[in-house]
Amino acid sequence: MARSSLTREEVLSAAAALVRQHGPQTLTMRKLAAELGTAVTSIYWHVGNRESLLDALVERTVQEMGTLRPAGRAPAPRIVSVARALRRELRARPHLIAMVHERGLTERMFLPAQQALVHEVHAAGLRGARAAAAVRAVQIHTVGFLLVERNRERSPVQSPGEGDLWSTSTAGGDPALARALTRPADPDRLFHTSVRALVDGLLAGGGNEGPADPEPPDRNRG
Amino acid sequence: MARSSLTREEVLSAAAALVRQHGPQTLTMRKLAAELGTAVTSIYWHVGNRESLLDALVERTVQEMGTLRPAGRAPAPRIVSVARALRRELRARPHLIAMVHERGLTERMFLPAQQALVHEVHAAGLRGARAAAAVRAVQIHTVGFLLVERNRERSPVQSPGEGDLWSTSTAGGDPALARALTRPADPDRLFHTSVRALVDGLLAGGGNEGPADPEPPDRNRG
DNA sequence: ACCTGAACACCGTTCAAGT
DNA sequence: ACCTGAACACCGTTCAAGT
User: Fold this and answer.
1) CA of B53 vs C1' of D19, distance in Å?
2) Does the nearest atom of strand D lie within 7 Å of A42's Cβ?
3) Tens digit of pLDDT per residue, chain A (222 long)?
4) Regarding predicted confidence, which is higher, A16 or B1?
5) Angle at CA of residue A150, ends B90 and B208, nearest 5°
6) Could you tell me where the DSSP H helices lie in B70-174?
7) Is A148 close to B148, i.e. CB distance below 8 A?
8) Nearest residue of A to residue B195 by CA position?
9) Nearest-CA neighbor of B68 among B151, B148, B138?
10) CB contact set of A96 (below 8 Å; sequence gap of 6+)
């Protein structure tokens, strides 16, 4: 009853299917073997072990991540559009976000987007270290937003008394603020406004000298 | 040789010690029992099962998170100082960040900081929904930054060829940009500048009407 | 009320043996 | 080169039995 020839690709895509449905924690080598109709140990021959199987899955999907095209005319909205596209792409692969995150590959996954961001930031007139910081800030805000957002989605209601906590008095006598903080945030809207504010701040912002704290010396000029 | 009386507190703090050192994945019920000098099953009587044991650990440390005091004079630097304090607190508990994140309790953990932020944003003149959005944006940027930062720390060198990728030509003929993106970012500095840019953008930014995309109707005015 | 050992149903992985 | 079953060393959890 043995299969004719098991390939590494077959193993990977079967594993990918299982992970896409229920996440990596439900993927056991034995279940995967059953799914494929082989002995558990055959899988080991093709992929080494469970850890490197998951690594391969992540690697594969990181590469699936295509290049992103900015939309809009001015640099600022174009940057915002890249961030939004990034978010859209990642939201389509919920389990993957966590896996890439766990493996510390977030940065690599963002290389295409980073290139687009570099181009736009450059068009906006930023150069050198300031341009690099702007690119990284947008990137990190987007990824961070996504991680937090996914976090929030998984746990609907947080603590008892969160409503009470934001009574009007706690919110500085601002009933609209109290109401807004009690209700769950609209993620699309929040993302858009926060990215726009960040980009505005980055493109408009002052020079390098921080007002409050010491800055490390720049020893790369010579 | 049995212990005189095992308490729930003893179980929790022994577990906390193990987790603090090597993370939750190394905590097994059997190891914990050995550490405590009891039978594995005794633990179950006190904490139910492994999952609720970890839940209790997270819960306990979430409550340890104290109130934060802003520093500085103007609203903007005070907000920035809250964000930085938040980051400092969390960086002191590396494994915990992940555990709180996994359990979707990030928001609850940030309630004290949120209150401080509300106060400052209010002092800066923001009201209602805009104030709420500003608070959330700063909060989400800080958490997000932290998650990404921790991610980066765990995986030192990313892909082969990341250096090549940022040759001067790819970076729009900007050698300083290319250099800056090749080198690892200075997280402290990046955090400071990004938060400051975000806060500046939020406090200065325009009204509610987004330029490019449709916004959901506000049906909470009447 | 609290503790115990035995047992169950799982894991990932190794290895010697097959073809 | 590829596949196999048996075995090892682990898991978390349940349960009947003790005091």
Assistant:
1) 26
2) yes
3) 445 689 999 999 999 999 988 889 999 999 999 999 999 999 999 999 999 999 999 998 888 777 778 999 999 999 999 999 889 888 887 787 788 888 888 878 888 888 889 999 999 999 999 999 999 999 889 988 888 888 777 665 555 445 555 666 667 778 888 888 887 788 999 999 999 999 999 998 654 333 333 333 333 332
4) A16
5) 95
6) 75-91, 94-102, 106-109, 111-123, 128-154, 162-165
7) no
8) A198
9) B138
10) A58, A61, A90
Average of per-residue pLDDT values in chain B: 82
* Chain A positions in Cβ-Cβ contact with residue B199 (cut-off 8 Å): 201
User: Which among B72, B77, B155 is the nearest to A105, CB-wise?
Assistant: B155
For the beta carbon of residue B126, count every other beta carbon within 10 angstroms: 22
In this structure, the number of other CB atoms found within 10 A of the CB of residue A200 comes to: 20
Residue A120 has which token pair? 């736009």
DSSP string across B19-83 = HHHH-GGG--HHHHHHHHTS-HHHHHHHHSSHHHHHHHHHHHHHHH-------SSSHHHHHHHHH
Which of A108, A128, A144 has its CB closest to that of B140? A144
Nucleotide nearest A44, CA–C1', reads C13
**A25 CA to D5 C1', in Å?**
26
Per-residue pLDDT of B174-191, as tens digits, reads: 888 888 888 778 899 999
| A 46-65 residues, CB < 7 A, strand D | 46
Question: Among candidates B181, B192, B194, B124, which has minimal Cα distance to A199?
Answer: B194
Q: What percent of chain A has pLDDT over 70?
A: 82
pLDDT at res. A52: 96
- The single residue listed with the structure tokens 């008394």 is A161
Angle between helix B8-22 and helix B40-47 axes, rounded to 10 deg:
110
A25 C-beta less than 7 Å away from strand D: no
Find out whether A3 and A36 touch, Cβ atoms under 8 Å: yes
